[in-house]
Amino acid sequence: xxxxxxxxxxxxxxxxxxxxxxxxxxxxxxxxxxxxxxxxxxxxxxxxxxxxxxxxxxxxxxxxxxxxxxxxxxxxxxxxxxxxxxxxxxxxxxxxxxxxxxxxxxxxxxxxxxxx
Length: 116
Prior knowledge:
Layout: E1 3-7, E2 10-12, E3 18-25, E4 34-39, E5 46-51, E6 58-60, E7 68-73, E8 78-83, E9 92-100, E10 103-106, E11 110-114
Parallel strand pairs: 2-11
Antiparallel strand pairs: 1-3, 3-8, 4-5, 4-9, 5-6, 7-8, 9-10, 9-11
């Protein structure tokens, strides 16, 4: 079965960095575009980044461009989100997502809190 397991969240001060990871299993990882989403308290879940199957193409929501970098390691079935220059408004639960045979799969999420 498809499984996505996020890790790497935590509490960080404004301006700090975190690196999130998502370990995938149960599908052919190298054939699937991977996405990161986040959901802040009281807000809808929003897409923030995507990476193509080869990793050559990435895309970001405007609010994180230049600060976040998505990457993937197809040999390890893992996708990462490097987050720099974090802001309090980046506080959210972060999820990785994969669409496999038209079905959306989500991890359990990892909490990121940006606060002094």
